[in-house]
Amino acid sequence: MLIRNATLPDGRTGIDLFVQAGRIAVVGPALAAPEGGEVIDAAGWLLSPPFVDAHFHMDATLSYGLPRINQSGTLLEGIALWGELKPLLTEEALIERALQYCDWAVAQGLLAIRSHVDICDDRLLAVRALLAVRQRVAPYLDLQLVAFPQDGLLRSPNALANLRRALDLGVDVVGGIPHFERTMVDGAESVRLLCEIAAERGLRVDMHCDESDDPLSRHIETLAFHTQRLGLQGRVTGSHLTSMHSMDNYYVSKLLPLIAEAGVHAVANPLINITLQGRHDSYPKRRGMTRVPELLAAGVNVGFGHDCVMDPWYSLGAGDMLEVAAMGLHVAQMTSSAGMHQCFDAVTVNSARILGLEGYGLEAGCRADFVLLQARSPVEAIRLRAPRLLVVRGGQVLARAPERRVALNLPGRPGAVDFTLQR
Ligand SMILES: [Zn+2]
After folding, report:
1. pLDDT tens digits for 353-379?
2. Among residues 96, 181, 189, 211, which one is catalytic?
3. Ligand 1 center to residue 298 CA distance, Å?
4. Band (33; pLDDT cuts 50, 70, 90)
5. Is the pLDDT of residue 100 over 60?
6. Ligand 1 mean position to 21 CA, how many Å?
7. How far apart are CA 265 and CA 119, in angstroms?
8. Alpha carbon of 11 to ligand 1 centroid (Å)
9. Which pLDDT score, from 0 to 100, does residue 191 have?
10. Cis peptide bond upstream of 67, omega within 30
């Protein structure tokens, strides 16, 4: 397969990609067309490596309205609602919803998802269901699973044993929720235990960490410490980190270098944290997203996650990582040219690093996985939530969509509108 005349996220234009045996073989201008191979004209549109969602909950997705709607839209009612839904879940229905979501994802060029899966259910029903889904979607989507003790590793009676069982069954990553344990001390102890389990088993770690507005929550510091102590640099992620928004500035100036030194990745979930955090505030209301530009400036790798789509916590969302990038950009006020590009990176290359994806990128030798966007640059892609014209995985076209144009019939001014030309 030859892709002709693409624009790349780094700004290069008129680039061709020659794909052979599922990999990108050559990248450059004016490549010779392969004998008998497919030639696709990118028409100067933006060719990007696929979107990557660094933080999701696939066991709850598309369950909106089951068994009822979250009336207040708050985190606490969401957790209560999930508790009501859990006993009603069946493996078949969960698999069906997850597969449907994966279809949505692929159609939007989202080809790798890290999903947390609740292990605080002695049946491990969601674990078994998502392991089956991981296998089913493997030919077209990388699904990475995190063993997530939603009700607390130490607070929920069988969570530690269930977590080990889930890992034995093949769940990829060790999860946690230290701020939900009964005490700060228990939270710190859960971080130690979980990091040690990951070190013993050679696994990655991704914890819901300090997901509160509590300025004194300190679990990210503990996570950085154990990462350093156990030599887990590059394999550990702190998800949410919303308390950092409310922390004392002096303390944060000490914390940021500790996170960077430990090579701990950070994940912000802009859509969710802008709606769920700051709910106990009157005015002014805190924004409740972690300090994204400051983390990046300190040398920390930051990815964005979708977190939820149509579930007990969030009734919106469509699996569109460009919507996630747009919200992150606005909430973090990352409106500089560099900042806007960083937001595109947060839903592509940065998140790929968090998942540890092999062969991700558009260089020769990388997997032939990419998405063609009806935009001329990453910033335009975010601005327009650009249509995904083509989604390719391993050199195989998984999805195609027509360019978006609107036929106008205005008195005296008929014609078509192509929004990408309104620059
Ligand atoms: Zn989450």
Report:
1. 999 999 999 999 999 999 999 999 999
2. 211
3. 24
4. confident
5. yes
6. 36
7. 23
8. 33
9. 98
10. yes
Tokens (6 digits) for 41? 């004209």
Total-model pTM: 0.96
Distance of CA 258 to the CA centre of its chain: 24
| Mean pLDDT of all residues belonging to the chain | 95
Please state, in angstroms and rounded to a whole number, the distance separating the CA atoms of residues 349 and 51: 8
Taking the C-alpha atoms of residue 142 and residue 362, their distance in angstroms, rounded to an integer, is 17
pLDDT above 70 for 419: no
Cα 48 to middle of ligand 1, angstroms: 26
**Both tokens assigned to 36:** 């008998």
- pLDDT (0 to 100) of residue 60: 94
Alpha-carbon Rg for the chain in angstroms: 22
Q: Quick check: is 92 catalytic?
A: no
Tell me, in angstroms, the distance from the centre of ligand 1 to residue 367's CA.
Answer: 28
Q: Any idea how long the chain is?
A: 423
User: 243 CA to middle of ligand 1, Å?
Assistant: 15
**Residue showing tokens 């955090």:** 277
Contacts with 128 (C-beta within 8 Å, 6 or more apart), sequence order: 91, 169
Sign of CA dihedral 237, 242, 244, 245: positive
d(CA 282, CA 65) in angstroms, rounded, equals 29
Q: Report the separation in Å between the CA atom of 104 and the middle of ligand 1, taken as the mean of its atom positions.
A: 19
**422 has a pLDDT exceeding 70:** no
How many other CB atoms are there within 10 angstroms of residue 342's CB atom? 21
Strand partners for 46: 7, 373
Beta pairing partners, 303: 267
Separation CA 71–CA 23 (nearest Å): 48
